[in-house]
Amino acid sequence: MTFKYKRKLIVAFISALANISILLAENPITVSPSGSPCSPDNLNSVDGEKCVVNKTLLTVTILTNRTEVSDIKELMGPELSGRCSGKIKLSRNESFFTDGPGNYSLESKCTWLIDGEGLLTRLYVDDFATECSWDHLYIYDGDSVHSNLLAVISGVIEKDNTTRKPMEIQGSNDKMLVHFYSDLAFNMSGFNISYKVGGCPRGGKSIECSGEGMCIDGVCTCNAFRKGLACEESICPNNCSTNGFCDPENHKCICKEEFAGNDCSQWKEMGYFEEISVHHVEGLARASASGIVSDSKIYIVGGYSFTDSPFVYAYNILNNSWTPYSTSGMDQPTSRHGHTVILYDETLIIFGGMTKDGAITNEIWGLNLTSMIWKQLVVQKTVCSAKLCGPLASVGHTMTLVNDKAYIIFGYSPVYGYLNTVQEYSIQNQEWTIVQTSGALIKGGFGHSGIHDVLSGRIFIYGGYISETSGTFILSNKVFSYDPKDRTWTLMTPSIYHRFHHVASVSNGLMLVFGGNAHNESEHSPHSKCCSASFSAYDLICDTWVEMEAPSASHMMPGIGLARNSHLVVQSPMPDDKLFRQIAYFFGGFDGQFKSDLFRFVPGECDSKVTKESCLTYYPGLKCVWNKSQKRCVPLSVATVEGTEKCLIQTRNLTEACSTITTCPTCLHTSFGCVWCTNNCQYGKCNGTKAVNRVDQCDLGDASTCRLLHTCTACHTELYCRWEQDQRCYTYIRKYENRVEKIHLDADEQICDVPCSERTTCSNCTQGHCMWCSSLQRCVDKNGYIPSFPFGTCREWTTSELKCKHPVEGSICGSYRTCDQCREDPGCGWCDDGTGTGIGRCMDGGLSGPMIEKNTIWEVDSDKCPLERWYFTSCPVCQCNGHSYCEPGTSECKQPCRNLTEGPNCQTCVQGYFGNPVNGGNCTACSCNGHGTQCHRDTGRCFCTTKGIIGDKCDRCDTTNQYQGDPASPSGSCFYMLAIDYQFTFNLSKKEDRFYTQINFKNTPPKTDLDVDFMIISSIEAKMNISYRTGKGEEKFIVENETFTVNKARFLRSEYSFGNEENTTFYVYVYGFNSPLWIQVVNIFIRYDMCCFSFLSFSLPSSFTLFLGLSFYSLYSLSYFFSLFRFIKVICGKREKE
């Protein structure tokens, strides 16, 4: 055993012990009193209080038992029961909870409710690791899921991380509901969250107020020379880095002219980050908003947050203030996120996005910034591409203004999936065009960034969440440039970072990229994060990337967590700047909580570099170039066209870059100088084959865009594409007169299922390539989860119809039949009917009681259930499902149960009956046509007792296996037809054979000159009847109720009618046995002139034969053979004597 493995076991063992201790601390167990005080060795009761263990200190404390849990499994909690499940009420003033030891289980679901009893609770999220964007922890400001959300956390949070800092969450309610849900894919180490009722901020430290102040009523009073909510910051950090002096009166550093930052550690000439301090603005926090700058104001439009807030805010750069705007107009856009905004002629234009109810729109709105009046803009003319016509509804696209045209690139559509389209909107002409682009082939995606480079005239697209196939995606690191003039795409140099929901801005020849979601599903390391604070630059002139110094806590106040995604960036000119620099302002975003902070990046200067090499590798937030004649390093913005060097010689491996390209058109449209060589891409020239240098020389199938379309509806927007059963889009081509051409398909060949977004029930949703979000009652494409729920707002989902929960009276809660099922759902509670028998109803609610929705607002409605009969985190003690009562003072149901039920909780039907007796349900007698006494207790499907009878009600014969008859008629049954000269084997040792107690055979001798000798052998004692019927006569019995293991009989042709119209049929009924067993039947037909026979053998080996092996069975078969031989010899001997 390796040291690493041993260490893991030791850590797991200690973790298990620690989890036991905290569960004991949360849910104290009464132990036998002995009068001894509490100690680690003695957990006995003291003065009516209970001894408990503290998980952190592994010490013992005295606590009064306030837990609601009612059984030992619940008392120990989900950790010790082996999985995360149910609801637990935490009543201690200070403690912590976890998902359990080790990695959390797949498809976990558990809920904790903290009751502060009048005081606010503060959560401290120090260590957290779940699958990014899929496994979430939900924190509600109240006692139900209908309370306001405070946070939705996923991904990795590390205690020592300076960018995504440990979270502290406090609501405005004295109760807090915490719910965790994980899906069926990856699982990680989970979380350990501490809390304190009335607690103060810790600032990422292990003690309140960072040990630098005093906690008074949940607020830190800091020591001298400390500041911050948690006293986590020195008023003058790092002694102002000796680059300034401390101003104790205003609690900040006063930096020297050439320095900036919270601690004066940043050289201004290198570019610097700066936090903009403004007072807290209610409702400002948001993500996936969009913004523009006009007249020294930053306009923030829309965005998503957990609470309603004004649609438009403006930040005044000059006076450092925020203002919510009240807009007017007959119609106004509804709240939305993932939309885009541009400014055109003092009109703010927004397009697309997702509204609060999940609908993705194609609306175009204009806001006049002078009158602040909204107007919906109407497209007067539309130019389609094949069958695709705009405006296409989308979310997560980019919109870039070039002259008087807006270019809407990519995005996610509820109908077509991930778009790879360019939509061109002519604002002056109000004309909308779906552009037919050329050049590099591009797959659809969303969450990318887009900027317009004025110098080249091109639009640069970077990153994004890209559709690879109909069921898979990747995060992109690619850069593409789009030329609006010739409508051509070109592949540029990729970044080392794959990301989406980042932002990009232009700064004098550079594209600056900050933040985003960098998580790939194939990565599990801390380096693959939901929220990033990385800062990089793409050189638009030299087609190269460079890593920039990311902002840190020393640059700004430590309380601001810099890692984020879904934020926005806008640019404003630096006042009176001769270098024409643009300041980038970053706002908002999401890191589990919505952010409202505003900070900026100010580009530096170039003139400190005195050599060409240092100049061309220097990136102070703008592009520096070398003036050859003056031998100076200057910004690109003031450089002359001639006499300037802009780039060093490229050192990139272009051969490798070309070799990764797999399509001919893309190969011919790169910045690398690639050529297409028959079926691969090479740099510069081909080796041994003729190079393809033009797209019109590419193979027609290889140059087709059909392969880029990953939904049926998108595929069928092209006339020559068709969607096939393997979930792929194919190009249809043909050879015609020595040329290859595409085939235009008929409309009836291009039919698709209903899009997921148009399916309204779980059943029809999960029957398609869709997933159903049960908490929101919405259907989305399986590959559309991330764009549909970017902030984890879907609390639970499924792709299986078997897991569909069907609403009762409009509520999912009504579908749960038992209190235990109800308690698993964080949004449901149980209303006991008051009889004390366990009957009740599951309904929407929280700890305070059942709830009802009125005008989109949820409120407690005690009329639905009296509060004394309401259960949210526990269940009534007595759970007899209405079929019994509990013994006084116990949870044990009095036996026997009534109403044909049985079980500890009277939860199942007795044998011979079926149904769902839980919660007062009924049991119904099995209906098996007299061929069975038992049936499946849930479905009523009969367990037939006669071999060969099948059907839910034992009403059919197994004709496939040669059984005939009519078991549904009175006294009817099924018989196996005995054939001549064949041997058969029947195996009744299987589990499903355990109900058989009878098997029937019949045979009609076909020849007039044969007598029939009959022999039957059973491995165990059984009973037998033998009868016959001649023609249509009555059935007459020869042998009745005979117990046997071996039986021999002879049927003479002289006594029975064989081989004519009145032919005789013999019936053999074997019954009264229990499987496993085997039965062997032999029919021997005897001629008087020779000893000639054939036989038929039925072999039903017992289960013990299977276990003892072939040798035993072979010996037994040999014994049988000799018995049979002696039987035949006797018969033949008699014939010879005759």
From TrEMBL:
Keywords: Disulfide bond, EGF-like domain, Glycoprotein, Kelch repeat, Laminin EGF-like domain, Membrane, Repeat, Signal, Transmembrane, Transmembrane helix. Residues 878-925 form the Laminin EGF-like domain. Coiled coil: none annotated. The keyword Magnesium does not apply. Residues 1-25 form the signal peptide. InterPro entries: Beta-prop_ATRN-MKLN-like (IPR056737), CUB_dom (IPR000859), EGF (IPR000742), GBD_ATRN (IPR056732), Kelch-typ_b-propeller (IPR015915), Kelch_1 (IPR006652), LE_dom (IPR002049), LMN_ATRN_NET-like_EGF (IPR056863). It is found in: Membrane. Residues 84-198 form the CUB domain. It holds the Pfam family CUB. One of its GO terms (cellular component) is membrane. It is a single-pass membrane protein. Disulfide bonds join 236-246, 255-264, 897-906, 909-923. The chain crosses the membrane at residues 1104-1128. Residues 232-265 form the EGF-like domain. Its main location: membrane. This is Attractin. It comes from Artemia franciscana. The lineage of its organism: Eukaryota, Metazoa, Ecdysozoa, Arthropoda, Crustacea.
